[in-house]
Specification:
heterodimer; A: 482 residues; alpha/beta; 6-stranded mixed sheet; globular; B: 503 residues; Rossmann fold; 2 domains; 16 helices; ATP binding (chain A)
Chain lengths: 482, 503
């Protein structure tokens, strides 16, 4: 139960406190010496542990280990924890170019066992490199890891390298779930490209059998000193043992909130607003005539989709609420869904920002994700703010989120696993609904334009992002407006 | 037996009833039912959980059946009362449980409660069936929290901390009390049937083993249960101390301006130095230091000479259009806003800014991490410190915005028994007073904001009656003889009555 994170290094008490300087991009105050910033930026990050963490999946085939690995990796990266998954099956496929049959996995196939052990080692090696040399903080080791012997090997490896270990075991005996699993992700696997459905299913079932005899589930007594979560029957029940630190606590919370019930998430922005038309950012204006038209069309669209028990969420800004009003269904307001706060630039046109704050404008183009408006927010701040929304979206089923450009980019980046670099430039045009449906290991996206014209509010990254650039160069990519 | 209520009490989700920052995830009210032998921390968990839920805006109340029993049976003789074959006592205990259940119903139906913690041993299947029946008939959700512990050291410590001082043992010496209490536990052990993972697999519950080293979570139904589980999994009982203080006096403090991002005044820097000395003198093992992203807290932490972490969530309340203004200027430029704020300081949101209610939302992850941590010093701001303090000291939404958090004073919080010991340590460096008192007088006339009771009111505990007389001026620290006017129509002088002095 002890947190054991970070450490209080003793810096000798200075005779006079260090000077502070404000980082111009992120607006963070950091101590400086002779006008130059000191190395340590003591900014709250999610993972304040010095130790990287190795997450190890455990479970028979078709228990959702890869699904969990990928989803968890996506979530951790989105909240700012550099994470990478290492799928041992992938290593095996690269090693053994052609998959013949389940026989490869037979416990008395010595040749097969040797190769599989080598693949696991190769993967662990890459884990070490990622966590030690490449700045990774979490590695997800995705394999069956069904024997105590294999798990001990991994634990020893982690100890030698100073990594914490957290096991995620998925236990499920419901044949319906397993079948659905096989249909969704196994049939399309590279292993079965040359088989028909029945052959593939039969082979895979035999594959599972190969593991069953030697499967040693995490035991309450024998494994009481390990840190783990056991997920039973796709989340009906959880057993959580010895959570060591903040990141493990967040992982447990996340895993306990996700589900696999089929559903759709609809993302869209408010209808075109008066500010949009004038090319101004931020503010709290109402809808333009076209925006109101969109709200009506959105209502019709939602009706036609005939979605069961749809929840509708808006921000607390007038334009999203006006849009929701047009739907004639109950909706809930979230302050967390408010548009990014542009601070001193609120309600300005890009031309005015260039005029009054050319330095800021350039800095923003240099690193749009981390750039914080003076007295405002950054995309990075937005992600922080939106995390509870994402958590609740995971819990919910059918939801329509009516929000704003920057907010929608952040949410979309989570669902589509976009990097911090891509996020601020994702295209989220007005009057377009994105329908997201989870499928296999990812998300299917359908883009539906509701046929009401609107201004374009998307500003691409200009070529010249130097502070020294000319105004025209800065304004090159500003979309047209009144 | 299914758990879904057959007469769901669906609270209609109004169009836009959420003036709060987050949607109100209410359908049916939830009964949180404790399960476990005596001295397993049930009351500790009940009180702590209730405090947390109320703070995040879920009206919650504890119903401690032991309390009902003490009210019914004025004098406690000994453990024999709890013997399973004591029919007379059994009757009384059953009646107490029913009385408590009935009060739960009243709390939900008439007092807008959303969660009720039913704090009793509830160690038999029979007792739990009674509760489940009651909940089903009324459309309440049920979530069980079972605490299982067989570590004799923990139990002994428990008895020492909270049982010896219980009203039951007021006239006993220590050894007698311990002996009697242990016999009491034995009485329950005979009939104790823990939640069964097979037979009770349809119920929603969390089992906590040995103060949190292991948890079993079954069938979490909804958002609030998910939050409860997350909270329970993050709290611990390791002794530790939390230090709360504000940044040193800032340049803007000196001139009576709110908000902004100014640096420390000379006296503020002095405080920072004094704080460093104080912290060193406390010899705190492995102290974490947290600040906001604002210059004044960081400058303060810099003087400590230890590593610190910056949290944006600890930034001062955003006063929106009133940032950098003096109260006089706010009165001059936004008199209506100024009056509205005095009418309901907790829910009032500055135009383009935040409310205390928003702040609490923003600070929840900080509280969660504070629960996980051990020794921490939080260097923050007035409104932020009020919110954090309200969490630790269980202050209501009405009291929170008026908690006194003066500059240059450290509050040292130490968990003890069921609550928190507070020591106020003034570091003896002069500073301006930034506290603006609550306007005196009766209930403010019809507010322009939604009536508080609908969403976030803290229900008054049954034990302490609501004061019916108008509070005396001296109680409120109001120096002027006239009652403060919170009407929008008030004169500027009336509005500025409680503004503290500044340059």
């Amino acid at each position: 139960m002890n947190s054991g994170e970070g450490c209080s290094e003793e810096i000798p008490l200075p005779s006079s406190p260090r000077e502070l300087t404000q980082n111009p991009l992120k607006k963070i105050w950091i101590p400086c010496k002779n006008g130059l910033p000191e190395k340590h930026i003591f900014q709250r990050k999610v993972c304040m542990t010095n130790c990287p963490t190795l997450i190890v999946t455990v479970g028979l085939p078709a228990r959702g280990k890869t699904y969990i690995s990928k989803k968890l990796t996506r979530y951790l990266n989105w909240i700012g924890v550099p994470t990478k998954e290492f799928n041992v099956g992938q290593y095996r496929r690269e090693c053994v170019k052609i998959y013949k049959s389940f026989e490869f996995f037979s416990p008395d196939n010595e040749e097969g066992l040797k190769i599989r052990k080598q693949c696991a080692s190769a993967a662990l090696n890459d884990v070490r490199q990622y966590l030690t040399d490449e700045g990774g903080q979490v590695a997800v080791f995705d394999a069956t890891n069904t024997t105590r012997e294999r798990r001990d090997t991994i634990t020893r490896f982690a100890e030698q390298n100073g990594f914490k270990v957290f096991f995620v075991e998925s236990v499920c005996e419901d044949p319906a779930v397993i079948n659905e699993n096989i249909v969704q992700v196994k049939l399309g696997s590279p292993d079965y490209t040359h088989c028909n459905t029945d052959e593939a299913v039969e082979d895979f079932m035999k594959r599972i059998k190969c593991y069953e005899n030697s499967y040693q589930t995490l035991d309450e007594v024998l494994d009481r000193d390990l840190s783990y979560i056991k997920i039973i029957d796709v989340g009906r029940r959880y057993l959580v043992n010895r959570v060591q630190d903040h990141i493990q606590s967040r992982i447990v919370y996340y895993l306990m909130n996700i589900h696999i019930t089929p559903r759709s998430i609809y993302l869209c922005r408010h209808g075109e607003s008066d500010m949009n038309v004038k090319g101004r950012i931020g503010g709290d204006s109402g809808l333009s005539l076209r925006g109101k038209d969109f709200a009506r069309r959105l209502g019709q669209f939602i009706q036609k989709q005939d979605i069961s028990d749809l929840k509708v969420w808006t921000s607390q800004m007038k334009r999203t609420i006006q849009t929701a009003e047009g739907l004639n269904v109950p909706y809930e307001q979230w302050k967390a869904l408010n548009e990014i706060d542009a601070g001193v630039c609120e309600e300005m046109m890009y031309e005015e920002i260039q005029d009054h704050h050319p330095l800021e404008f350039a800095l923003r183009d240099q690193d749009k994700y981390r750039y914080r408006y003076p007295k405002g927010e950054s995309y990075e701040d937005l992600v922080q703010r939106l995390e509870p929304v994402i958590m609740e979206l995971e819990r919910q089923e059918n939801v329509l989120v009516i929000c704003h450009q920057a907010v929608m980019r952040c949410l979309l980046a989570y669902f589509l696993d976009k990097s911090a670099e891509e996020l601020p430039y994702l295209k989220c045009p007005l009057h377009t609904v994105l329908k997201l449906t989870p499928v296999a290991y990812g998300c299917k996206v359908e883009s539906i334009f509701l046929n009401v014209d609107a201004v374009n509010t998307h500003r691409d990254r200009p070529e010249n992002v130097e502070v020294s650039r000319m105004a025209e160069e800065a304004l090159y990519t500003v979309p047209a407006h009144q | 037996m299914a758990q879904t209520p057959n007469k769901p009490q669906v609270r209609k989700r109004f169009r836009c009833d959420s003036i709060a920052s987050v949607p109100q995830f209410t359908n049916s009210p939830t009964m949180i039912v404790m399960v476990g032998l005596p001295a397993r921390g049930k009351t500790y968990i009940s009180k702590k959980l209730t405090r947390y839920l109320n703070w995040i805006g879920v009206p919650t109340k504890v119903f401690n059946v032991g309390q009902y029993r003490r009210d019914a049976v004025r004098t406690y003789k000994n453990f024999e009362f709890f013997r399973p074959d004591n029919e007379e006592a059994m009757k009384i205990r059953k009646a107490c449980a029913r009385s408590a259940l009935s009060d739960v119903g009243t709390y939900f139906m008439l007092e807008h409660g959303q969660a009720a913690v039913f704090d009793a041993t509830n160690t038999t299947r029979e007792r739990r069936e009674i509760i489940l029946s009651y909940a089903k008939d009324n459309g309440y959700k049920v979530f069980f929290i079972e605490s299982i512990c067989d570590d004799p050291e923990i139990i002994a410590e428990n008895i020492k901390q909270v049982k010896l001082s219980s009203p039951d043992y007021i006239d006993c010496d220590k050894e007698e009390a311990v002996a009697d209490f242990l016999k009491r536990i034995e009485c329950y052990k005979v009939t104790y049937v823990p939640l069964d993972d097979d037979k009770d697999s349809h119920l929603s519950y969390i089992k906590i083993f040995n103060v949190g080293s292991r948890y079993l979570v079954n069938r979490v139904q909804d958002h609030i249960q998910s939050r409860i589980v997350y909270y329970l999994m993050n709290i611990h009982v390791t002794p530790r101390t939390i230090y709360l203080c504000r940044h040193g006096e800032s340049e803007l403090n000196l001139v009576g301006r709110i908000g902004g991002d100014s640096g420390l005044s000379p006296r503020g820097s002095q405080f920072a130095g004094a704080l460093g000395k104080y912290i060193k003198s406390q010899s705190i093992p492995d102290l974490k230091v947290w600040t906001s992203h604002m210059k004044r807290t960081i400058q303060t932490a810099e003087a400590l000479g230890v590593a610190y972490e910056q949290w944006k969530a600890l930034n001062e309340i955003d006063a929106g259009v009133c940032e950098d203004l003096t109260y006089e200027e706010i009165q001059a430029n936004y008199p209506e806003e100024f009056a509205l704020r005095d009418q309901d300081k907790y829910r009032y949101r500055y135009p383009k800014g935040e409310s205390y209610e928003d702040l609490v939302q923003r600070l929840e992850p900080v509280i969660m991490e504070l629960e996980r941590q051990e020794n921490v010093l939080v260097v923050c701001h007035q409104a932020v410190m009020r919110c954090l303090l309200a969490y630790f000291l269980d202050k209501s939404a009405e009291e929170l915005p008026y908690l006194k958090c003066p500059l240059h004073t450290v509050l040292k919080l130490t968990p003890v028994a069921y609550g928190c010991k507070v020591e106020s340590v003034s570091l003896n460096i002069e500073a301006v007073n930034t506290h603006r008192d609550r306007p005196a007088g009766d209930e403010p006339p019809c507010t322009l904001l939604a009536p508080p009771s609908r969403h976030h009111s803290r229900a008054q505990p049954m034990a302490s009656p609501v004061p019916t007389r108008a509070p005396r001026l001296q109680d409120l620290g109001v120096t002027s003889l006239s009652l403060q006017n919170v009407e929008v129509s008030r004169e500027p002088e009336e509005a500025l009555l409680t503004v503290p002095d500044h340059i």
